[in-house]
Amino acid sequence: MPRAQESGGVLTLVASPIGNDLDLSPRARREIEEADLIAAEDTRRFWDLCRREGLSPRGRVISYYDQVEKDKAGKIAEEVLAGARAVLISDAGTPVINDPGYVVVNEAAKRGARVTACPGPCAALLALILSGFRADRFCYEGFIPRKEGERKREFERLRGEERTSIYYESARRLEESLKDMREALGPGRRICIARELTKEHEEVLRLSLGEACGLKGIMGEVALVVEGRPPRKGRAADFVQEAEKAACGGERLKDAVKEIARREGIPSRELYEKVQESRRGK
Description:
- This protein starts with 9 loop residues before the first strand and ends with a helix.
- 41% of the residues lie in helices and 19% in strands.
- The protein folds into three domains: 109 residues, Tetrapyrrole methylase, N-terminal domain (Cobalt-precorrin-4 Transmethylase, domain 1), CATH 3.40.1010; 104 residues, Methyltransferase, Cobalt-precorrin-4 Transmethylase, Domain 2, CATH 3.30.950.10; 46 residues, no CATH class.
- The strands form two sheets. Strands 3-2-4-1-5 form a five-stranded parallel beta sheet, with helices on both faces.
- It is built from eleven helices and ten strands.
- It has 282 residues and is of the alpha/beta class.
- Helix 6 links the parallel strand 6 and strand 7.
């Protein structure tokens, strides 16, 4: 691995406000104004931010969005190696997190260019710390899949996930996603819907999936936090009698097994097989 070069050049990832311009840090202002090159996800929005905040960038400003990232990443890295101070800034939030940046960071690092970051707003992390859920172990999953089949498979995977999970979702697709999530995780799983974070109409809702599916009119940018499954209370074999009791009470065995497995975070097939083994042994 090449060591970082000592030409004085550096690539700085600068986090930008996601709603409240006061979140633009003094260091971010300095980095923007002193950079030789600024790669902005959207140059129009970047100049709007500069006008609102009275910033006067001295460097060259170029557009840097998903479709051009591979073409421009190497050139930016070479300029940094030659001694340029470059800034990468997203429309809103932290670069790389569902925004361009991964490719140029990778390119710069491979070539031995110095890369650093100016921390700041990130909707995913803000939603996490506002959720009230455990944050010692969590996973960020990006946007919820749009296609129904992919979305349902994603939520099925969450059944056994003990970590807190964070997603982004479009407000217009939120209702549909919540219904699929309730079907996979059950109505009792707790979630947090954080919308319009840092903005005037910021709202943080902490509720169960059963309660969430009755919500209407959620608008704005949404971050969704899902509480992790509680640690397993036992093995599949520990719930055979409970499944049998439910079946004797008139419930379909497969339905009883599915609900117990969902609640306990154990494979439903494993529990069903244990019940069948128990019946064969009698």
